[in-house]
Design a protein that fits this description.
The chain is of the alpha/beta class. It has a single domain, classed as 3-Layer(bba) Sandwich (Glucose Oxidase, domain 1), CATH 3.50.30. It is built from three helices and eight strands; from the N terminus they run ββββαβαβαββ. Strand 5, helix 2 and strand 6 form a beta-alpha-beta unit.
């Protein structure tokens, strides 16, 4: 069993889902389709994969201030990840989750763990607790 304690950045419910560990940073603006949750950036190594319902491990984001709007659209469309795991807080991206909560929508939990810990969860069934515990059997 693999277990690590994360730092909760945006609270949310406990979840379970298949991990998707991105191999490269992504821009949500132009990189993820807000209607489907698919990675649409043709240059991204995981082009075509769906982030909806997955425990999404992000090695980083690529710059647009619209990332929060895209994430907000994903939440509204029911196509958001089940949880978002970052290696460092990204205030712009996380703003989308905070706004979703303010609007009364159920938004995923977001937490931070070390970048080196991301790979050990790749393609595994992962559970994330409300207090930030990340575990895979």
């Amino acid at each position: 069993m693999t277990v690590t304690q994360g730092h909760v950045l945006v609270p949310g419910p406990a979840v379970q889902g298949l991990a998707l560990v991105l191999a490269a940073p992504i821009s949500f603006w132009g990189g993820v389709d807000p209607r489907t949750g698919r990675v649409i950036d043709v240059r991204h190594p995981q082009h075509g994969l769906d982030i909806a319902g997955r425990v999404l491990f992000l090695p980083g984001t690529i710059g647009s201030s619209s990332a929060s709007a895209v994430l907000l659209e994903l939440v509204h469309a029911g196509r958001a990840p089940a949880a978002i795991v970052l290696h460092q807080a990204d205030a712009i991206l996380l703003l989308g989750l905070i706004v979703a909560r303010e609007m009364g929508w159920q938004a995923p939990i977001a937490l931070r763990i070390g970048r080196d810990e991301h790979r050990q969860f790749s393609d595994r069934d992962v559970s994330v607790s409300a207090d930030g515990l990340v575990a895979a059997a």
